[in-house]
User: Fold this.
Amino acid sequence: MLRRLTPVLLTLVVVALGITALAARPDPGPPGRGADFVVLAGVAGLRWDDVDPQTTPTLWRMAEQGSIGSLSVRSAHRPTCPVDGWLTLGAGNFAAWNGSRQAGGCPPTGVTVEQPDGIGANLPDQEGVVRYNQDRVSWGATPGALSESVRCSVAVGPGAAVAAARPFGRVDRYAPVLPADPAKLLGSCVLSIVDLGSVDGEDRASRAAQARQADAQLARVLAARPARSLVVVAGVSDTDPPSRLHVAVADGPGWEKGWLTSPSTAREGYLQLVDLAPTALAALGRPMPERLFLGRPAASVGGRPADLRAAIDQPADADREAGAQRRVAGWFFTLLALAQVALAVAVLPLLRRARRHAGPHGPEPVSRRVVAAVELLLIAAALAVPAALLADAAPWWRGQHAGWWFAVVAVLLIVGGTAAVRFTPGHDRTLGPLGAVAGLATLVVGVDVLTGSRLQLNGVVGYSALEGGRYAGLGTVGLGVFIAGSLLSAGWLAQRVRRGWRPMVMVAVGGAAVVVVGSPYLGADSIGAIALTAGVSVAAAISTGGWLTVSRLAWATMAGLAVTIGFAVVDVRRPATERGSLGRFLAAVGDGTGGLTVHRSSTANLETLVNSPLTVLAVAGAALVWLALLQPWGGLMRLFGIYPAIRAAMAGTAVAAGLGGVLGGSALDVAGAAGALVVPMAALAALRVLDHSTDRTQPGAGRPGDEGSGGAAGGPTDGGDRPGGGRASGDGRAGEPGVAGPPTTRADLPDPSGSDHPAGRGAPGRAADPADGADPADGAGPTSDGTGPDGTAADAPSSGGTPAPSRPGGRPTTVPTQPGPASTEVATG
Assistant:
């Protein structure tokens, strides 16, 4: 009865962990204090390295008493040109000005502003811009949504007119430049938007002169600001490619000496351009058009250094890091893809010659030194992405040649990690390197997530604040590595326990990983958590051996659906400002705008599939597995048969990585990152299994599956192939522990309990047990390499080799087979 209830109980545990991780949300905190007036002052192209006490004294004093942050100026056009930035500010959503554009440039765009009555203004192009954003841009932005949310607004300058124009083109109050006394104009409406000019070019003297002019205009605005007003200064756009992070300063009641942040970034010191419109309405106490705004109200949080120079150095350094990351990330992933493809080609002949023949006939085996060198290269390749993530702990981007500094740091970390794995106890066991690499990768990513994901923000293998897609939590590459590492670690641990406990271990380790990925306090990736839940369910279902039957697949599917539905119900009931991505999507489906989300996701999948180097990693890894490792000579089927928990972990990784990438809009990026870890380790383990493919082990006097010094029933439980000695000696003598002579080892054993065979069948000397899920009527013959359908060692007559006598106490010994065709591992009874 308990055996039948096990799948139900495990499903409930996975579902409970998944929903618990996804349902809890951080407290958004009390709303900020209100203001009677809001003034949004924009300077296109203003960066933090333009701000200093001599060049911009007014802005410096404002930053001293207010809150500061880095502003991501993402819009619907890349890069965000000034007209796009002003339009996005007024829309509260990613918008773009229509018309032809230079690829990657920001040509001057003339904005026609008509003043028919001398009070307000009219933009004759506004209606066409609105139609363009509604029909041609996938974000569904409505330019002028901010001005439509207040009774009256003021615009000063052409850029401000673009932001303040209502959807039909009307600007309520307009002045082309600041009047001599702007107090009356700024106090005439609750919302004022001021264009302070722009700062462009890379010449330091030219930028300083432009920043000085903008600062003089800001001084006039602050002198004339209404009482109880909130003033926000923002670098609203780029002026030259490539994109950069820009200035954001807020000064007013409740905004004293802190960091700016918003729920859209969930990162202290960062906010987006789309957050400025909802911030203004929240400060004024006005309701927000949730369907039109994509941004969220900003807030001020503590923790800023008391010294302003030290505080400003942080966003300025973040801008330098983000710029260096963009230059380095491309060539890093390209080199990684090329290296892994070259390594895959080099492994092929080793797989062909890895099987050691018992007699004098057959190809000469590859030199042990060559195999050892290739194994080290495989370990290094698997550790490349975790090492690149850890490299961001060193400030390599501050050097003059940032790319070379990153390469030096990353190579040193790869060498150190490879050495650590090489000298880890148990390295000589079949699964020793796999367990060590998986644990190390999981540790690096997990610790980073638990400490705030600081290495992933603007990191080479993380995410960039310049892209505006994610600012906190687990990124695409990190998700792939964490999925692969956590599931392989779970499989390695599960293989070391009894067969009946393996699903429990899978659920325990996988459930903890789901919490880390999905918790808004940690990974903050609800889609990744749902995908990982499905992967954990699949892995737990087949961890005891056998096929992924319809019933097992049904339970895994039900677990994933239960987590998705449970979280969706919880998330959609939250206030709109607190919903996650799934809740926002369901709300969009309810109000008829869900098609835009689907369109954006499909477009992102296609663009990523075509342009990302990780696609090459995913395709090359899949080709190596399918065309080589899963072939009769490839060794992976044999590995899966001997170690069913590893087979389950790799199957779960494939499911989770595939779902996470497609549902998250990153195509094969998650699978590529996971494959960069899994495929080299699978090749290494396959090489080791093939190296032991001609060994035979005779059990002791007891029945197969009896517990003893050889381990518990249910397959190898020590994580490797050396429980008490070395490899069998080449002269046919079994190696005795403590006796000098050739090294001996126990070969990779099939699961004597039958758990390593499909549905529990095929265990030599043991009848199929229906209680173990075996079907007595379902037979399966060996494959061409002597393995069963899932890679297990097939039953073979005992005449293939001469069994050696058992040691005292029934401990099995290993003897070589007689010369002849390649044999298989057979546990004779």
User: Anything to note?
Assistant: The mean pLDDT is 79. Residues 36 and 227 are 8 Å apart (CA to CA).
